[in-house]
Amino acid sequence: MWEAYHSVSTIDEALALLKENGRAARIVAGGTDLIIEMERGQHPQLKTLIDITRVPNLDQIALKDDWIVLGPLVTHNHVVASKLIRERALPLAQASWEVGAPQIRNRATVAGNLITASPANDTITPLIALEAEVSLASAAGERKIQLADFYSGFRQTVLRPDELLREIRIPPMGADQRGLFLKLGLRRAQAISVVDAAVIVRLDSAYRVSDARIALGSVAATIVRVPAAEAYLAGKTLTEETVAEAGRLASASVRPIDDVRGSAEYRAEMVKTLVARALRQLAASEPLDSIPAAPPMLWGADEGIVKRGLPAAIAHSPDSPIMSRVNGVDLVVTTGQQKSLLPWLRDDAKLPGTKEGCAEGECGACTVFLDDVAVMACMVHAPRAHGAEIVTVEGLQSGETLHPIQQAFIDQAAVQCGYCTPGFLMSGAKLLEEIDAPDTEQINYGISGNLCRCTGYYKIVDAFRQAARVKAEGKQG
Question: What is the pTM of this model?
Fold first, then answer.
Protein backbone atom coordinates (compact mmCIF):
# COMPACT_ATOMS: atom_id res chain seq x y z
CA MET A 1 0.00 0.00 0.00
CA TRP A 2 2.88 2.39 0.77
CA GLU A 3 6.54 2.44 -0.23
CA ALA A 4 8.11 4.27 2.72
CA TYR A 5 7.01 4.70 6.32
CA HIS A 6 8.79 7.22 8.54
CA SER A 7 8.46 7.29 12.32
CA VAL A 8 9.66 10.75 13.31
CA SER A 9 10.84 12.07 16.66
CA THR A 10 10.14 15.77 16.06
CA ILE A 11 7.67 17.95 14.17
CA ASP A 12 10.56 19.50 12.21
CA GLU A 13 11.46 16.08 10.84
CA ALA A 14 7.85 15.61 9.72
CA LEU A 15 7.76 19.01 8.02
CA ALA A 16 11.02 18.31 6.19
CA LEU A 17 9.61 15.04 4.85
CA LEU A 18 6.40 16.77 3.76
CA LYS A 19 8.45 19.38 1.90
CA GLU A 20 10.51 16.68 0.22
CA ASN A 21 7.66 14.38 -0.80
CA GLY A 22 4.76 16.78 -1.46
CA ARG A 23 1.51 15.19 -2.59
CA ALA A 24 2.99 11.69 -2.31
CA ALA A 25 3.12 11.97 1.50
CA ARG A 26 0.59 12.09 4.33
CA ILE A 27 0.82 12.47 8.08
CA VAL A 28 -0.27 9.57 10.31
CA ALA A 29 -1.56 10.77 13.67
CA GLY A 30 -4.46 8.40 14.27
CA GLY A 31 -4.64 7.12 10.72
CA THR A 32 -7.94 5.33 11.34
CA ASP A 33 -9.57 6.72 8.21
CA LEU A 34 -6.41 6.83 6.11
CA ILE A 35 -5.44 3.17 6.47
CA ILE A 36 -8.90 1.97 5.43
CA GLU A 37 -9.06 4.39 2.52
CA MET A 38 -5.63 3.26 1.31
CA GLU A 39 -6.62 -0.39 1.49
CA ARG A 40 -9.62 0.51 -0.70
CA GLY A 41 -7.29 2.12 -3.24
CA GLN A 42 -8.58 5.65 -2.63
CA HIS A 43 -5.14 7.31 -2.44
CA PRO A 44 -3.03 5.82 -5.25
CA GLN A 45 -0.70 8.84 -5.20
CA LEU A 46 0.44 8.19 -1.62
CA LYS A 47 3.85 6.55 -1.41
CA THR A 48 5.17 7.91 1.90
CA LEU A 49 3.57 7.92 5.34
CA ILE A 50 4.95 10.08 8.15
CA ASP A 51 4.05 8.80 11.62
CA ILE A 52 4.05 11.46 14.36
CA THR A 53 2.39 9.29 17.02
CA ARG A 54 5.48 9.10 19.22
CA VAL A 55 6.40 12.78 19.25
CA PRO A 56 5.92 13.93 22.88
CA ASN A 57 3.71 16.87 23.91
CA LEU A 58 1.51 16.82 20.81
CA ASP A 59 -1.34 15.21 22.78
CA GLN A 60 -1.85 18.11 25.19
CA ILE A 61 -4.99 20.17 25.85
CA ALA A 62 -4.22 23.51 27.49
CA LEU A 63 -5.57 27.01 28.07
CA LYS A 64 -3.15 29.49 26.48
CA ASP A 65 -3.75 33.22 26.08
CA ASP A 66 -7.52 32.78 26.44
CA TRP A 67 -7.62 29.98 23.84
CA ILE A 68 -8.20 26.28 24.42
CA VAL A 69 -5.40 24.68 22.40
CA LEU A 70 -5.42 21.07 21.17
CA GLY A 71 -2.31 19.44 19.75
CA PRO A 72 -2.42 17.23 16.64
CA LEU A 73 -2.25 13.99 18.68
CA VAL A 74 -5.21 14.83 20.93
CA THR A 75 -7.60 11.92 20.58
CA HIS A 76 -11.33 11.90 21.06
CA ASN A 77 -10.89 10.14 24.41
CA HIS A 78 -8.48 12.88 25.52
CA VAL A 79 -11.25 15.40 24.79
CA VAL A 80 -13.89 13.36 26.62
CA ALA A 81 -11.66 13.18 29.71
CA SER A 82 -10.70 16.86 29.68
CA LYS A 83 -12.23 18.89 32.52
CA LEU A 84 -11.34 22.06 30.62
CA ILE A 85 -13.22 20.98 27.49
CA ARG A 86 -16.26 19.74 29.39
CA GLU A 87 -16.49 23.03 31.31
CA ARG A 88 -15.59 25.52 28.54
CA ALA A 89 -16.32 23.74 25.23
CA LEU A 90 -18.91 21.09 26.12
CA PRO A 91 -20.31 20.53 22.59
CA LEU A 92 -16.88 19.28 21.46
CA ALA A 93 -16.70 16.79 24.34
CA GLN A 94 -20.20 15.53 23.55
CA ALA A 95 -19.33 15.10 19.87
CA SER A 96 -16.08 13.29 20.72
CA TRP A 97 -18.04 10.89 22.95
CA GLU A 98 -20.22 10.05 19.94
CA VAL A 99 -17.24 9.06 17.76
CA GLY A 100 -16.86 5.32 17.20
CA ALA A 101 -16.07 3.25 20.29
CA PRO A 102 -13.35 3.33 22.98
CA GLN A 103 -10.78 1.57 20.77
CA ILE A 104 -11.33 4.09 17.96
CA ARG A 105 -11.47 7.11 20.29
CA ASN A 106 -8.11 5.99 21.69
CA ARG A 107 -6.49 6.17 18.28
CA ALA A 108 -8.46 8.65 16.18
CA THR A 109 -7.45 12.30 16.60
CA VAL A 110 -9.59 15.41 16.41
CA ALA A 111 -7.11 16.88 13.93
CA GLY A 112 -7.53 13.83 11.70
CA ASN A 113 -11.30 14.17 11.92
CA LEU A 114 -11.01 17.74 10.66
CA ILE A 115 -8.63 16.85 7.82
CA THR A 116 -10.72 13.93 6.56
CA ALA A 117 -13.34 16.65 6.00
CA SER A 118 -16.43 14.49 5.80
CA PRO A 119 -19.58 16.52 6.55
CA ALA A 120 -20.65 13.59 8.75
CA ASN A 121 -17.55 13.84 10.96
CA ASP A 122 -18.94 14.67 14.39
CA THR A 123 -16.30 17.00 15.82
CA ILE A 124 -16.28 19.49 12.92
CA THR A 125 -19.82 20.67 13.71
CA PRO A 126 -19.21 21.87 17.30
CA LEU A 127 -15.85 23.37 16.36
CA ILE A 128 -17.54 25.42 13.63
CA ALA A 129 -20.17 26.55 16.16
CA LEU A 130 -17.42 27.38 18.67
CA GLU A 131 -15.72 29.46 15.94
CA ALA A 132 -12.44 27.58 16.27
CA GLU A 133 -9.37 28.25 14.18
CA VAL A 134 -6.54 26.01 13.06
CA SER A 135 -2.81 26.59 12.86
CA LEU A 136 -1.18 25.05 9.78
CA ALA A 137 2.58 24.50 9.85
CA SER A 138 5.10 23.96 7.08
CA ALA A 139 8.88 24.22 6.82
CA ALA A 140 8.32 27.82 5.70
CA GLY A 141 6.32 28.83 8.79
CA GLU A 142 2.79 28.81 10.22
CA ARG A 143 -0.53 30.34 9.24
CA LYS A 144 -3.80 30.55 11.15
CA ILE A 145 -7.23 30.40 9.54
CA GLN A 146 -10.79 30.10 10.76
CA LEU A 147 -11.98 26.51 10.68
CA ALA A 148 -15.00 27.62 8.65
CA ASP A 149 -12.55 28.74 5.93
CA PHE A 150 -10.58 25.48 6.07
CA TYR A 151 -13.10 23.64 3.88
CA SER A 152 -13.29 24.29 0.14
CA GLY A 153 -15.80 21.56 -0.76
CA PHE A 154 -16.85 17.99 -0.11
CA ARG A 155 -13.89 16.29 1.61
CA GLN A 156 -11.66 19.14 0.44
CA THR A 157 -9.55 21.50 2.55
CA VAL A 158 -7.07 24.31 1.93
CA LEU A 159 -4.30 22.31 3.62
CA ARG A 160 -1.26 22.41 1.33
CA PRO A 161 0.76 19.24 0.60
CA ASP A 162 3.68 20.54 2.67
CA GLU A 163 1.57 21.45 5.71
CA LEU A 164 0.34 19.69 8.80
CA LEU A 165 -2.35 20.79 11.24
CA ARG A 166 -0.25 21.95 14.19
CA GLU A 167 -2.96 23.20 16.58
CA ILE A 168 -6.70 23.57 16.99
CA ARG A 169 -7.56 26.79 18.84
CA ILE A 170 -10.97 27.29 20.48
CA PRO A 171 -12.34 30.43 22.14
CA PRO A 172 -13.66 29.10 25.46
CA MET A 173 -17.34 29.55 26.17
CA GLY A 174 -18.16 32.23 28.71
CA ALA A 175 -20.21 31.92 31.87
CA ASP A 176 -23.19 33.43 30.02
CA GLN A 177 -23.07 30.84 27.23
CA ARG A 178 -24.69 27.43 27.02
CA GLY A 179 -24.14 24.92 24.28
CA LEU A 180 -24.58 21.30 23.34
CA PHE A 181 -24.21 18.80 20.51
CA LEU A 182 -26.95 16.42 19.39
CA LYS A 183 -26.64 13.60 16.90
CA LEU A 184 -29.07 11.36 15.08
CA GLY A 185 -27.60 8.00 14.06
CA LEU A 186 -29.00 4.67 12.99
CA ARG A 187 -27.71 2.87 16.09
CA ARG A 188 -26.52 3.74 19.58
CA ALA A 189 -22.78 3.27 18.97
CA GLN A 190 -20.41 3.20 16.01
CA ALA A 191 -22.95 5.27 14.05
CA ILE A 192 -22.30 7.77 11.28
CA SER A 193 -24.44 10.88 11.62
CA VAL A 194 -27.67 11.10 9.67
CA VAL A 195 -27.90 14.67 11.01
CA ASP A 196 -26.02 16.38 13.80
CA ALA A 197 -26.29 19.83 15.31
CA ALA A 198 -24.24 22.05 17.60
CA VAL A 199 -26.10 24.97 19.18
CA ILE A 200 -24.56 27.66 21.37
CA VAL A 201 -26.48 30.59 22.84
CA ARG A 202 -25.44 33.57 24.91
CA LEU A 203 -28.11 34.56 27.44
CA ASP A 204 -28.39 37.96 29.13
CA SER A 205 -29.56 38.55 32.69
CA ALA A 206 -33.21 38.40 31.56
CA TYR A 207 -32.48 35.04 29.93
CA ARG A 208 -32.86 36.52 26.44
CA VAL A 209 -30.65 35.29 23.62
CA SER A 210 -28.04 37.92 22.76
CA ASP A 211 -26.09 35.67 20.40
CA ALA A 212 -26.79 32.30 18.80
CA ARG A 213 -24.69 29.95 16.71
CA ILE A 214 -26.16 26.90 15.00
CA ALA A 215 -24.01 24.50 12.96
CA LEU A 216 -25.36 21.47 11.13
CA GLY A 217 -23.55 18.35 9.96
CA SER A 218 -24.37 15.66 7.40
CA VAL A 219 -26.82 17.84 5.49
CA ALA A 220 -24.55 19.36 2.83
CA ALA A 221 -21.11 19.05 1.25
CA THR A 222 -19.59 20.81 4.26
CA ILE A 223 -20.70 21.77 7.75
CA VAL A 224 -23.09 24.71 7.49
CA ARG A 225 -24.30 27.54 9.70
CA VAL A 226 -27.90 28.81 9.48
CA PRO A 227 -27.77 32.63 9.73
CA ALA A 228 -31.54 33.10 9.37
CA ALA A 229 -32.27 31.04 12.48
CA GLU A 230 -29.37 32.62 14.37
CA ALA A 231 -30.56 36.15 13.56
CA TYR A 232 -34.15 35.29 14.46
CA LEU A 233 -33.14 34.17 17.96
CA ALA A 234 -31.36 37.43 18.82
CA GLY A 235 -33.24 39.34 21.52
CA LYS A 236 -35.80 36.59 22.13
CA THR A 237 -36.46 34.33 25.07
CA LEU A 238 -36.57 30.64 24.34
CA THR A 239 -40.32 30.06 24.48
CA GLU A 240 -41.91 27.08 22.78
CA GLU A 241 -42.99 29.31 19.90
CA THR A 242 -39.50 30.77 19.48
CA VAL A 243 -37.89 27.33 19.61
CA ALA A 244 -40.27 25.91 17.01
CA GLU A 245 -39.75 28.84 14.63
CA ALA A 246 -35.96 28.63 14.96
CA GLY A 247 -36.14 24.93 14.09
CA ARG A 248 -38.29 25.72 11.07
CA LEU A 249 -35.92 28.44 9.87
CA ALA A 250 -32.92 26.15 10.28
CA SER A 251 -34.63 23.45 8.23
CA ALA A 252 -35.64 25.93 5.54
CA SER A 253 -32.05 27.19 5.26
CA VAL A 254 -30.55 23.87 4.11
CA ARG A 255 -30.92 21.63 1.10
CA PRO A 256 -30.04 18.24 2.61
CA ILE A 257 -28.39 15.39 0.78
CA ASP A 258 -29.92 12.02 -0.10
CA ASP A 259 -27.89 8.93 0.74
CA VAL A 260 -28.24 5.42 2.15
CA ARG A 261 -28.62 6.72 5.72
CA GLY A 262 -31.55 9.02 5.04
CA SER A 263 -33.53 10.94 2.44
CA ALA A 264 -33.30 14.70 1.99
CA GLU A 265 -36.88 15.04 3.20
CA TYR A 266 -36.16 13.08 6.36
CA ARG A 267 -33.00 15.06 7.06
CA ALA A 268 -34.86 18.36 6.66
CA GLU A 269 -37.44 17.25 9.22
CA MET A 270 -34.72 16.04 11.59
CA VAL A 271 -32.87 19.37 11.35
CA LYS A 272 -36.05 21.04 12.58
CA THR A 273 -36.38 18.48 15.38
CA LEU A 274 -32.74 18.55 16.55
CA VAL A 275 -32.43 22.34 16.57
CA ALA A 276 -35.69 22.73 18.50
CA ARG A 277 -34.68 19.97 20.93
CA ALA A 278 -31.30 21.59 21.52
CA LEU A 279 -32.86 24.97 22.22
CA ARG A 280 -35.35 23.46 24.67
CA GLN A 281 -32.51 21.85 26.59
CA LEU A 282 -30.51 25.07 26.58
CA ALA A 283 -33.53 26.96 27.95
CA ALA A 284 -33.91 24.53 30.84
CA SER A 285 -31.92 24.79 34.05
CA GLU A 286 -30.73 21.18 34.09
CA PRO A 287 -27.03 20.33 33.55
CA LEU A 288 -26.15 19.76 29.89
CA ASP A 289 -23.21 17.38 30.28
CA SER A 290 -24.64 13.99 29.32
CA ILE A 291 -21.31 12.14 29.29
CA PRO A 292 -21.05 9.52 32.07
CA ALA A 293 -19.11 10.62 35.13
CA ALA A 294 -16.64 7.74 34.79
CA PRO A 295 -16.73 6.75 31.12
CA PRO A 296 -14.78 3.63 30.13
CA MET A 297 -11.71 4.66 28.15
CA LEU A 298 -9.76 1.38 27.84
CA TRP A 299 -6.53 3.37 27.64
CA GLY A 300 -4.23 2.17 30.43
CA ALA A 301 -2.40 3.86 33.27
CA ASP A 302 -0.87 6.60 31.11
CA GLU A 303 -4.31 7.58 29.78
CA GLY A 304 -3.17 7.44 26.17
CA ILE A 305 -0.47 10.07 26.65
CA VAL A 306 2.83 9.65 24.79
CA LYS A 307 5.36 9.04 27.56
CA ARG A 308 8.25 7.65 25.53
CA GLY A 309 9.36 9.52 22.46
CA LEU A 310 11.62 8.02 19.83
CA PRO A 311 15.31 8.85 20.38
CA ALA A 312 15.68 9.32 16.62
CA ALA A 313 13.66 9.08 13.44
CA ILE A 314 13.25 5.67 11.81
CA ALA A 315 12.82 5.11 8.08
CA HIS A 316 11.00 1.82 7.47
CA SER A 317 11.43 0.20 4.08
CA PRO A 318 9.43 -2.82 2.83
CA ASP A 319 12.23 -5.22 3.82
CA SER A 320 13.37 -3.69 7.12
CA PRO A 321 12.60 -5.67 10.29
CA ILE A 322 9.91 -4.78 12.81
CA MET A 323 11.25 -5.26 16.32
CA SER A 324 8.53 -5.39 18.93
CA ARG A 325 7.75 -6.82 22.35
CA VAL A 326 4.62 -8.95 22.02
CA ASN A 327 3.07 -10.70 25.01
CA GLY A 328 6.30 -10.18 26.96
CA VAL A 329 8.51 -11.71 24.27
CA ASP A 330 10.90 -9.77 22.03
CA LEU A 331 10.11 -10.41 18.38
CA VAL A 332 12.01 -9.52 15.24
CA VAL A 333 9.87 -9.95 12.14
CA THR A 334 11.32 -9.20 8.71
CA THR A 335 8.05 -9.22 6.79
CA GLY A 336 4.74 -7.38 6.80
CA GLN A 337 5.85 -3.74 6.71
CA GLN A 338 3.12 -2.79 4.23
CA LYS A 339 0.24 -4.35 6.15
CA SER A 340 -2.00 -3.26 8.96
CA LEU A 341 -1.17 -4.53 12.44
CA LEU A 342 -3.94 -7.15 12.21
CA PRO A 343 -2.52 -9.37 9.42
CA TRP A 344 0.99 -8.67 10.70
CA LEU A 345 0.09 -10.21 14.06
CA ARG A 346 -1.78 -13.12 12.52
CA ASP A 347 0.42 -14.00 9.56
CA ASP A 348 3.86 -12.62 10.29
CA ALA A 349 4.05 -12.79 14.10
CA LYS A 350 2.12 -16.11 14.02
CA LEU A 351 -0.45 -15.06 16.63
CA PRO A 352 -3.82 -15.99 15.11
CA GLY A 353 -5.88 -15.33 18.25
CA THR A 354 -6.65 -11.79 17.07
CA LYS A 355 -9.52 -12.13 14.58
CA GLU A 356 -10.46 -10.29 11.42
CA GLY A 357 -14.18 -9.66 11.34
CA CYS A 358 -14.59 -6.54 9.21
CA ALA A 359 -11.08 -5.06 8.74
CA GLU A 360 -12.50 -1.54 9.00
CA GLY A 361 -13.04 -0.84 12.69
CA GLU A 362 -16.66 -1.93 12.95
CA CYS A 363 -16.57 -5.19 14.92
CA GLY A 364 -13.76 -5.04 17.50
CA ALA A 365 -12.69 -8.66 16.97
CA CYS A 366 -9.13 -7.46 16.41
CA THR A 367 -8.80 -5.50 19.67
CA VAL A 368 -5.27 -5.56 21.10
CA PHE A 369 -3.26 -3.41 23.51
CA LEU A 370 -0.71 -1.15 21.83
CA ASP A 371 1.56 0.46 24.43
CA ASP A 372 -1.12 -0.38 27.02
CA VAL A 373 -3.95 1.25 25.04
CA ALA A 374 -6.84 -0.78 23.57
CA VAL A 375 -6.96 -0.26 19.80
CA MET A 376 -8.37 -2.04 16.77
CA ALA A 377 -5.42 -3.69 15.05
CA CYS A 378 -7.00 -3.31 11.61
CA MET A 379 -6.71 0.49 11.97
CA VAL A 380 -3.00 0.61 12.88
CA HIS A 381 -0.13 0.46 10.38
CA ALA A 382 2.20 -2.47 11.06
CA PRO A 383 5.39 -0.33 11.31
CA ARG A 384 3.85 1.30 14.39
CA ALA A 385 4.65 -1.98 16.16
CA HIS A 386 8.37 -1.24 15.85
CA GLY A 387 9.64 -0.47 19.33
CA ALA A 388 6.18 -0.89 20.81
CA GLU A 389 4.73 -3.22 23.45
CA ILE A 390 1.74 -5.24 22.29
CA VAL A 391 -0.56 -7.62 24.12
CA THR A 392 -2.89 -9.95 22.25
CA VAL A 393 -5.44 -12.42 23.57
CA GLU A 394 -2.67 -15.03 23.77
CA GLY A 395 -0.96 -12.87 26.38
CA LEU A 396 -3.88 -12.39 28.79
CA GLN A 397 -3.34 -15.46 30.93
CA SER A 398 -0.51 -15.74 33.45
CA GLY A 399 1.26 -19.05 32.96
CA GLU A 400 -1.40 -21.73 33.26
CA THR A 401 -3.81 -19.39 35.05
CA LEU A 402 -6.52 -17.82 32.93
CA HIS A 403 -7.34 -14.15 33.27
CA PRO A 404 -10.56 -13.70 35.32
CA ILE A 405 -12.42 -12.53 32.21
CA GLN A 406 -11.35 -15.66 30.32
CA GLN A 407 -12.48 -17.95 33.14
CA ALA A 408 -15.75 -16.05 33.45
CA PHE A 409 -16.50 -16.55 29.74
CA ILE A 410 -16.11 -20.30 30.29
CA ASP A 411 -18.16 -20.38 33.49
CA GLN A 412 -21.01 -18.24 32.08
CA ALA A 413 -21.06 -19.99 28.68
CA ALA A 414 -20.46 -16.59 27.08
CA VAL A 415 -18.75 -18.16 24.07
CA GLN A 416 -21.04 -19.07 21.19
CA CYS A 417 -19.34 -19.34 17.79
CA GLY A 418 -16.30 -17.80 19.50
CA TYR A 419 -15.16 -15.61 16.64
CA CYS A 420 -15.78 -12.32 18.44
CA THR A 421 -14.55 -13.64 21.80
CA PRO A 422 -10.89 -12.48 21.63
CA GLY A 423 -12.00 -8.88 21.13
CA PHE A 424 -14.48 -9.04 24.00
CA LEU A 425 -11.82 -10.55 26.26
CA MET A 426 -9.36 -7.78 25.47
CA SER A 427 -11.95 -5.05 26.05
CA GLY A 428 -13.05 -6.76 29.26
CA ALA A 429 -9.53 -7.11 30.62
CA LYS A 430 -8.80 -3.43 30.02
CA LEU A 431 -12.17 -2.34 31.44
CA LEU A 432 -11.57 -4.29 34.67
CA GLU A 433 -8.09 -2.83 34.92
CA GLU A 434 -9.61 0.64 34.71
CA ILE A 435 -12.83 0.22 36.75
CA ASP A 436 -12.87 -2.31 39.60
CA ALA A 437 -16.63 -2.84 39.69
CA PRO A 438 -18.17 -1.58 36.45
CA ASP A 439 -21.93 -1.21 36.47
CA THR A 440 -24.11 -2.38 33.59
CA GLU A 441 -23.90 0.96 31.80
CA GLN A 442 -20.10 0.99 32.00
CA ILE A 443 -19.92 -2.60 30.76
CA ASN A 444 -22.14 -1.71 27.82
CA TYR A 445 -20.01 1.32 26.98
CA GLY A 446 -16.85 -0.75 27.39
CA ILE A 447 -18.01 -3.27 24.78
CA SER A 448 -19.70 -0.77 22.46
CA GLY A 449 -16.92 -1.37 19.93
CA ASN A 450 -17.35 -5.15 19.98
CA LEU A 451 -20.04 -6.93 17.96
CA CYS A 452 -21.32 -10.45 18.66
CA ARG A 453 -23.10 -11.80 15.62
CA CYS A 454 -24.60 -14.63 17.67
CA THR A 455 -26.39 -12.00 19.80
CA GLY A 456 -24.82 -13.40 22.96
CA TYR A 457 -24.63 -10.18 24.94
CA TYR A 458 -26.54 -11.30 28.06
CA LYS A 459 -24.01 -14.03 28.84
CA ILE A 460 -21.13 -11.75 27.92
CA VAL A 461 -22.34 -9.11 30.39
CA ASP A 462 -22.80 -11.83 33.02
CA ALA A 463 -19.19 -12.88 32.42
CA PHE A 464 -18.00 -9.31 32.92
CA ARG A 465 -19.89 -9.16 36.22
CA GLN A 466 -18.37 -12.43 37.41
CA ALA A 467 -14.87 -11.32 36.48
CA ALA A 468 -15.37 -8.08 38.41
CA ARG A 469 -16.50 -10.06 41.50
CA VAL A 470 -13.51 -12.39 41.26
CA LYS A 471 -11.15 -9.44 40.91
CA ALA A 472 -12.71 -7.72 43.95
CA GLU A 473 -12.49 -10.92 46.02
CA GLY A 474 -8.84 -11.30 45.04
CA LYS A 475 -8.07 -7.78 46.23
CA GLN A 476 -9.90 -8.39 49.52
CA GLY A 477 -8.04 -11.64 50.04
Answer: 0.96
